[in-house]
Amino acid sequence: MSEAPFARRALTVAGIERLGAYSVLRLADPGPEPQPGQFAMLAAVERWGGGADERPFLARAFSVARWQGGESHFLLEDVGPGTRRLCELRPGEQVWALGPLGRGFRAPEHGRRAILVGGGAGIAPLAILQDSLVQPATVLLGFRERRRAQGAALLRDAAMATDDGSVGHHGLVTELLEAEIGRDPAATVYACGPAAMLEGVRAICAASAIPAQLALEAGMACGFGACFGCAVPRRGGGYVRVCVDGPVLDAELLDRVDEHAGAPA
């Protein structure tokens, strides 16, 4: 696993690209190289605050979507003042980055294929995971509607589902997963997305005794396990901190996926 520096780094924006409802923020980044599933805490160096007194925002946690050519890529959606500020950055501006942090995905065991299941902005860590896999993976992505479905361009050869039927399967991405498992259950499932989607993936895989690794996205204030803001209950009692025990957890560690532990839909 890559170890994060003890201090945040000022990284320069190399570019920002639009993918429908999303933005891909590209930061010039000399490393360390992240493991698929790890994340970074990001904050704009300038104008990172709100209100009359420009009270500072907390840094935001984002999964690394890709690391290549000396750049780290992050998938953003404008859902509030902090993400709006990041989405409006332009080349040459700077971002404070702390990371890579957390525990990432593990490769599938021999003889098992990988099925990647993502929803909404939660597709981000599946892109870098797809890049790292030796064997081709089956990719299943779900979105609300056509504009968000343009985010699928982040990955290759994805089958899609949309809530309104505007692209691909009219329904839930978990329905695609059930069909895929029925075709060939010798798989390991990797998932990131809204909490309801993750809970559906967990339940489907538990019923079929299929191993699954879930990348959770509970709200984080620190990234180092100090604040306990991202704690989620684990099977058998106690809690895990998403930022240090995860964000990638084996699905069997959870009785259910809490509502606050998923990505935006």
What does this structure look like?
The protein is α/β, with parallel strands linked by helices and 265 residues long. It has 2 domains: 93 residues, Elongation Factor Tu (Ef-tu), domain 3 (Beta Barrel); 149 residues, 3-Layer(aba) Sandwich (Rossmann fold), CATH 3.40.50. Helix content is 18%, strand content 34%. It has 6 helices and 18 strands. Strands 6-3-9-1-2-8-7 form a 7-stranded antiparallel beta sheet. Helix 4 runs parallel beside helix 5. The longest helix is centred in the C-terminal third of the chain and has 13 residues. The protein is globular, with a radius of gyration of 18 Å. The mean pLDDT is 92.
Helices and strands, with pairings:
Elements (H helix, E strand, L loop, with lengths): L8 E11 L2 E7 L10 E6 L4 E2 L4 E2 L3 E4 L2 E3 L2 E7 L3 H7 L6 E8 L11 E7 L4 H9 L5 E6 L2 H4 L8 E5 L6 E2 L2 H11 L3 E6 L2 H13 L4 E4 L15 E3 L5 E3 H4 L2 E3 L15
Parallel strand pairs: 10-11, 10-14, 11-12, 12-13, 14-15
Antiparallel strand pairs: 1-2, 1-9, 2-8, 3-6, 3-9, 4-5, 7-8, 15-18, 16-17
Helix pairs in contact: 4-5
